[in-house]
Design goal:
The chain is mostly helical. It has helices at 7-31, 36-58, 62-82, 90-108, 113-121, 132-161, 165-174, 177-194.
């Protein structure tokens, strides 16, 4: 499941630009206050470009790297226009809000995204939906993913409104890989508990008789 949902690389790649931005913000703010925003935006953007380029060269999940690059570039453009360092994270906060809505909506319409993503990666098409136990497990586990995106939106949104860019960057990193790992563990346990004894597992959906 970790590999299907992007793996460690994608989670770490998403945090590196934020780390570079915050470090540059702190260091440049002390050494050259007048240049703090341009330097910080440059550090975050260049790091994101370097990560995407490295993944492309290595052939590692290029799509994930590109998707991680988009909110960084968008945030850099917004921050450059407004002159507010916290706007570097604006696009990412909006993306988390949209993700929370998407995951919640997918459950309500009977297409829980965890099942859609995992089933697609495993080339099961809609077979997982024909398995009532597997479908129920994916739906329950998807709520945890929706909750994680909602949590990010609320916490990061509050820090954004408080205009605390350094703390915002630190918390954004804390709510990326560690939170993703926790949700993955919980998702796996929820799925396993949803499957009755003797069920062959995620790779082998059992249609209802």
């Amino acid at each position: 499941m970790l590999d299907v949902l992007g793996g460690r690389r994608s989670a770490l790649d998403a945090t590196l630009p934020s780390v570079a931005f915050v470090v540059a913000l702190v260091v440049t703010g002390r050494a050259a206050p007048d240049a703090v925003l341009p330097v910080s935006l440059g550090a975050g953007t260049l790091t994101a470009l370097a990560v995407a380029g490295w993944r492309a060269v290595r052939g590692h999940q290029v799509r994930a790297a590109v998707l991680g690059l988009l909110p960084v570039l968008g945030g850099a453009v917004v921050a450059a226009r407004t002159g507010r360092a916290e706007d570097f994270f604006a696009v990412r906060i909006l993306a988390n809000a949209a993700s929370a809505l998407a995951w919640t909506g997918s459950i309500w319409v009977g297409r829980p995204l965890l099942g859609v993503v995992t089933g697609s990666a495993l080339r099961q098409r809609g077979a997982w939906r024909a398995d009532p136990h597997l479908y129920r497990g994916y739906a329950r586990a998807s709520w945890w993913w929706a909750g994680s995106f909602a949590l990010r939106t609320v916490v990061l949104g509050a820090l954004y409104l408080a205009s605390t860019p350094v703390l915002l960057g630190v918390v954004q990193v804390a709510l990326s890989w560690p939170l993703m790992t926790s949700v993955l563990v919980v998702s796996w346990r929820v799925l396993r508990r949803a499957l009755p004894p003797g069920h062959p597992g995620l790779l082998h959906p059992v249609p209802a008789v």
